[in-house]
Design goal:
The chain is an alpha+beta fold. It has four helices and three strands; from the N terminus they run αβββααα.
Amino acid sequence: MTADADQFRQSMDDALSALRELRTNRPAAADVEVSGEATAADGLIAVVAAPGGRIRSITVAPQVLRQGSGYLAEQLTIAVNAALDDLQARTVAEAPDTPSPAVLLDRLADVQQQSVHQMQSFLSALTSAQARTARPAG
């Protein structure tokens, strides 16, 4: 086996190993109950965000309603966005150590480049062999 083929095989093995690790270490959705929480309006509005960008609950104290719809809308927006940010931070913090998608993409891009190079070498060798066999004996 050539050095290029060994390098290609190693890159492919590394990428597949990283993907297997990601799949193996990923907790089942039922095993992890991650949520994001935030408040606004001095704690009078509370929001709980669930995975998938879903809002699990919104609690609004009656005092906030007296402030008017503009204030309520502004504070709800602040609380919802903060809860979603908290959810994202908690999801990353509670996730097992797994390769980042960027690392996996880089590895797969390397594998793709090496496979193109290998295919070009293979086709070149086939073309040369075909040309040699097509020459008249003599």
